Amino acid sequence: MPGEDAFLLHDTYGFPLELTAEIARERGFTVDETGFEVEMEKQRARARAAAKGGDAVTAEQAYASLGDIETAFGGYETLIRDTSVVALHVGGRRRKVAKAPAEVELFLAETPFYPEGGGQVGDRGEIAAPSGRVAVEDTQTVAERLIVHRGRVVEGRIAAGEAVTARVDPRHREDTMRNHTGTHLLHAALRRVLGSHVRQSGSLVALDRLRFDFT
After folding, report:
1. Which residue from 96, 125, 154, 211 lies 20 to 30 Å from 31 (Cα-Cα)?
2. What is the reported pLDDT for 50?
3. DSSP 55
């Protein structure tokens, strides 16, 4: 698959590159990831140009404008991590401070929160600062290198540069992982009953349910 097509799926429809690559592999194809990165860099360049010109920017451009910031994931080892706020967005714009009850997007230096991927929903939990607390309702990967924690400031305030403690909701993680395992067991059972031709074409893995799409 050309990188331009994979980028279109990602940019227009929110389709993660890893999921596109997984589906392509199941059908005997590969994705031109180099071409995809070329298109991503073009997007970042457009975002930088728009920011300098003061024009309104899309969410994807806003993420790209964060530059070379990356999020380190450490959620396999622990569900609690002392870290810091690298940047935050309120209303799609980068801000220094967010106060209750604002909806906010937080970017951390390191996080234990697992982002949505492969059909599995992202972690929930909370991020606590010395003077405030954010209830995290969703976790996503954006711009291929950033993990964004979406939620609401439920107490006080939170600021860029602050030291914080990130805590994943253990029940949400564990129940979601069980359903993720369930999709693999279901896939194996379908192949055993219906035949080896059965292929996974998609899935949804949530806290309280799972969906398995196959062909």
Report:
1. 211
2. 56
3. -
